[in-house]
Amino acid sequence: MALGSSTAALAGPAPAPVPGAQATVGAGDTYIAQPQANFHDHYIGLDASGALPLGSSGVQVQAGASYHNEAQHGLAILRDGVEVDGALVWQGAIGRFGGAADYSSKRVEYGLYAEAFPARVITLGIRAGNVTDGGEQRHYVGADVVVYPWHDLALASAGDGVSGGSSRTVFDASMRAEYLFSPTIPVSAYAGYTYFHEVGGSTGYVLLVGLTYYFGAAGAHLEQRQRTGVDAWGPLPPQQRFP
Questions:
Q1: Percent helix, strand, coil in the chain (nearest 5)?
Q2: Domain boundaries, the chain
């Protein structure tokens, strides 16, 4: 991109909200490692999600499902897993907030989150909620920042803390980048890194890469799709989505 067009993208007005239903399908590869504990886990997954506005009320229903194949290296464990999630969100020009829940055979998560759009180039988010795993309940809080250097590139960072129950407190920090190749052929690629630390225990990291195809909102940029469609951030810290 030329310097002139990049500067215009940074200074331009906020895009108008995109009306109508939107959806995504994607595929990703995730690697989790705790070297001190000699733990290595690998996921290959598929996912689909959708967002449906309820008339002109500003309320939006979101739902999704994902399938993954898990391989725990060194333990000869190979298994499949399915997750389903849903959210009820109020969407406005200056931000959105809502409640969401995620269910899998291993755990149930639920919480509240909010995002603000103080400028075209930035999104600020907070979240808090509970994770129930094996009858044990834990609590989490987190925050994130998303910067859009131009309309089709998102650079995100987030931090979370999870505590409660008999398990150790976990802190994580993550970075993620997503690029939409074309608004008219809406395929994006993303990559991310998460570092996590168990207080009094080991540290580890999560690496992920994947592709997403967007439906609906014809001609919309990534920035518009992320702010008005399916919320990729959601109510749950990234490390906690994995065992």
A1: 10, 65, 25
A2: 3-241
| Other beta carbons within 10 Å of 184 | 8
8 Å CB contact between 76 and 42? no
Instruction: Give me Rg for the CA atoms of the chain.
Output: 18
The correct CATH number of 3-241 out of 3.40.50.2300, 3.40.50.620, 2.40.160.40, 3.20.19.10 is 2.40.160.40
Q: What is the dihedral of CA 150, 152, 155, 159, to 10 degrees?
A: 120
pLDDT for position 5: 36
Residue 85 contacts by C-beta under 8 Å, 6 or more apart in sequence?
49, 63, 64, 65, 100, 101, 102, 103, 234
Residue 241 has a CB neighbour count (10 Å cut-off) of 19
Q: State the pTM of this model.
A: 0.84
In this structure, what DSSP letter does residue 16 have?
A: P
Measure the CA–CA gap between 142 and 158, rounded to whole angstroms.
7
Query: What pLDDT, in 10s, does the model give residues 99-153?
Result: 989 888 778 889 999 999 999 899 999 999 998 877 788 888 999 999 999 999 9
